[in-house]
Amino acid sequence: QTKKSGRNGFNFFAPTMSVGAVERLHLEHDLRLAMQRNEFMLYYQPQVDLHSGKLIGVEALCRWQHPQMGVLLPNLFIPMAEDLGLIDELGLRMVEMGCRQMMAWDQAGLQVPRLAVNLSVRELERSQLPQQIADILQRTGLNPARLELEVTESKLMRHADMAIQALNALRALGITLAIDDFGTGYSSLSYLKRLPLHRLKIDRSFIRDLTHDVNDDSIARAIIALGHNLGFEVLAEGIESREQAEFLSGEGCLEGQGYLYSRPMTADELQLHWQATLEPHLKPNAPPNA
Ligand code: C2E
Ligand code: MG
Ligand code: MG
Ligand code: MG
Fold first, then answer.
1. Ligand 1 site, residue 203, Cβ cutoff 6 A
2. What is the mean pLDDT of the chain?
3. Where is the EAL domain (predicted)?
4. Mean pLDDT of 84-110
5. Ligand 1 pocket member 264 (CB < 6 A)
6. Ligand 1: which of 237, 263, 266 to mutate, judged by most atoms within 8 Å of the beta carbon?
7. What Cα–Cα distance (Å) separates residue 259 from each residue in 2, 151, 239?
8. What is the residue with the minimal CA distance to atom 11 of ligand 1?
9. What average pLDDT does the segment 133-148 reach?
């Protein structure tokens, strides 16, 4: 039931492919084993300043290197990990892996300003979470100001009362917080104002038809204004064309990520790719640095 994909020559499950009951049982069994065998890894997608194209951060995206099926995408196994009660452990491992990678890039001379890690709202329910994140920062040595945690808007709003406390405790560590997939979750604006957020990420469903669908143009414009009025940075996800990027930066959206700039890639690939673009003076024939 795997689908051949050209990307990296791996077999991918299409994210939309539904999993049958028997297959699901197998996968659940495999997922427990995968925790023991540490089969999870992070891909990293650059986040850029839309004006300069400069690297302002990376978003860490979890992948499961399944021994038979190849690289599996999170929409397939994160909900499963939530159901099986494995998400707490998996989430902490991803935060730690990402923090360690940031320190390794520092060592290698690639300064990635910020690491964003996705958090499942289920993880926020755990009262130990802030202390566990603090421990990871301590262990790895990453400056808390360089860590951002992202939570999906729709899930957050369904648990808003609980979330406010959890987010405040995380905020107190000196990390930043982002609301992910914004625009799809029916946010109560009064809640939004009370949440200690730094960044609002416009859902990519509004970016897709930008400059071709006047309704999406208006929605994107309204979300950017709303975010700024509430004091948040605004980042657009899923940017695939120059037209979209130009529209967004013209409307005052300063940050973005998407296939136009880069697909998610392994830590090594990211280092190769961005070291080259960030240090043109190291390339032969480039003009000397002023
Ligand atoms: P997300 O946080 O909204 O991440 C962005 C998703 O959009 C990623 O899918 C990314 O590969 C994809 N993407 C980026 N640029 C483009 C583009 O230009 N066009 C299109 N069509 N897609 C783009 P991915 O990696 O499959 O992740 C899906 C979701 O899984 C994430 O959505 C996030 O909610 C969740 N997720 C990923 N890693 C983790 C994790 O470690 N923990 C938890 N709890 N959730 C995770
Ligand atoms: Mg995200
Ligand atoms: Mg998102
Ligand atoms: Mg999304």
1. no
2. 89
3. 24-278
4. 97
5. yes
6. 237
7. 24, 21, 6
8. 264
9. 98
